Amino acid sequence: MNIFSLLITHLTILQQEGYEPGRFLSWWVTHPFKYQISHKKPLVYTSKVKKIIFLSLTLALIQSIILLPNFFNTLIPGFLLLLLPPPFLIASLFLLWPYEAINRRHTINTTRQTLLSHPHLKTIGITGSFGKTSVKDYLYQILASYTLTLKTPQSYNTIFGIAKVVKLELLSKHHFFISEMGAYKRGEIKELCFMTPPQFSILTAIGTQHLERFKTLENTTLAKFEIIDSNPNKENCLVNLDNPYIKNTFSQAKYKNIKTYSLHDPKADFRVSHYTLKPSGTTFTISYKNNHYSFTSPLFGTSNLENLTAAISMSLMLKLPITTIKKAVSSITPAPHRLELKKIGNCTLIDNSFSSNETGFHRILDDLSDIPGKKALITPGIIELGDKTATVHQEIGEKASKIFEKIILVGESERTKNLQIGLGGKNSTHIPNNTNLWPIIHELAESYDWILLENDLPDTF
After folding, report:
1. b vs e for 164-176, b when ≥16 Cβ sit within 10 Å of the residue's Cβ?
2. Which residues does 370 contact at the CB level (< 8 Å), separation at least 6?
3. I want to staple 298 with a disulfide (CB 3.0 to 4.6 A). Which of 27, 40, 281, 339 is the partner?
4. Residue 277, SS3 per DSSP
5. Is the pLDDT confidence value at 209 over 70?
6. Where does the pLDDT of residue 459 fall: very low under 50, low under 70, confident under 90, or very high at 90 and above?
7. What are all long-range contacts of 286-289, with beta carbons under 8 Å and residues at least 24 apart?
8. What was the pLDDT predicted at 13?
């Protein structure tokens, strides 16, 4: 393998780890000779990536020039450095740091001024441990059916991703801008709210997702609530009352004017008073201010229903006509690989392979437990749960053992080991992480009514 392809392999992992040297080095220490990966999540050639590639190759060239006079003494260290790109990558990150800091501040201020220069634009910020991308996509489909609306695409939820959308796509005739906000530590949501000041805010959920990065659920809660704390108009904020971490924090006096949505709590401002799940989608009713609105949607599952309820609730807060909302909801489509239903013959595949979280996994299991038919599960488990990995996976395994006739665990890991413990004596199959799943899925589809594909691991795992 040449040095360039090796560099790209390690750079892919560095990008997946958010350019955090510590996390990248932790991966490298545990995979010291892994020079090829499946590229499930391929490298995106951003401006930062191009700079790192240039600096890394320049540093490698300088190293070669310095060591070249003594040819024989350069063979061993030169050979090792060619095999081990991390020193070049880490050095490049440190060389880029001053420029990155200055550019970051300039980008934040410029983007903020651009948005504030559009006085008729309503900005809606969305964050949460999970559900934020789906809520964003559903809300966009509703608003866009009514007026010109802009959203951050896919999972563009960082400073430079959001800024790029504002710079290249925002027009003076846009009425709404929906900004998804992501974070791995406290202070990041607050910074994003300064850059794109939201007049309206949605907090979807708080949970164990990325607990390995946040360390504690208290840190996660404080980080996610920054989207509420940064909005001076609390009556324009919407939170999920079904989430226990949100509900506990919501009880504080400073949050008394916040709007709430729920599938179960009768005290919520927007409440799903009835719903029915079918293979073709969901029918449900939302109650708000003594009004009852009935909807039909092709979306499936209570997790999707919860996210759709958030989008409908915000649309009502924005005073969209109910006829517009109903029409949009009737044709709304899920984000790819997020509880996406796919028919394979007489079998229904629930493709939830983009990501997984503890709450969502339990919910889809509960949904399937009430639906007749023969069922199969394919999963590698949930990543980044930190010290909750064992407990969470054993609980999920125990529940899954009562629902699925066939269970396929992807990879040998702490996740699948504890899933197996939870399964007890239930027989399961293990397959390597790099296995092509589609031949297996098509084979299962011949004899199963439902297949749940839950999560897909990035190359870092």
Report:
1. bbbeeebeeebeb
2. 277
3. 281
4. strand
5. no
6. very low
7. 286/312, 286/313, 288/313, 288/316
8. 81
Give the pLDDT mean for 167-190: 93
Q: Distance between CA atoms of 333 and 297, rounded to whole angstroms?
A: 9
> Between residues 161 and 29, which one has the greater pLDDT?
161
**What whole-number distance in Å separates Cα of residue 343 and Cα of residue 419?**
27
Cα gap 239→197, rounded to integer Å: 18
pLDDT confidence band for 130 (50 / 70 / 90)? confident
Distance of alpha carbon 144 from alpha carbon 177, whole angstroms: 10
What residue ranges do the domains of the chain occupy? 3-101, 118-330, 340-454
Ramachandran angles phi, psi of 46, nearest 5°? -75, 175
Among 142, 212, 166, 147, residue whose Cα is nearest residue 386:
212
What is the pLDDT averaged over residues 309-313?
Answer: 98
224 neighbors 191 (Cβ within 8 angstroms): no
CATH number of 340-454: 3.90.190.20
What is 118-330's CATH superfamily? Mur-like, catalytic domain (3.40.1190.10)
Mean pLDDT score of the chain: 86
Tell me the whole-structure pTM to 2 decimals: 0.79
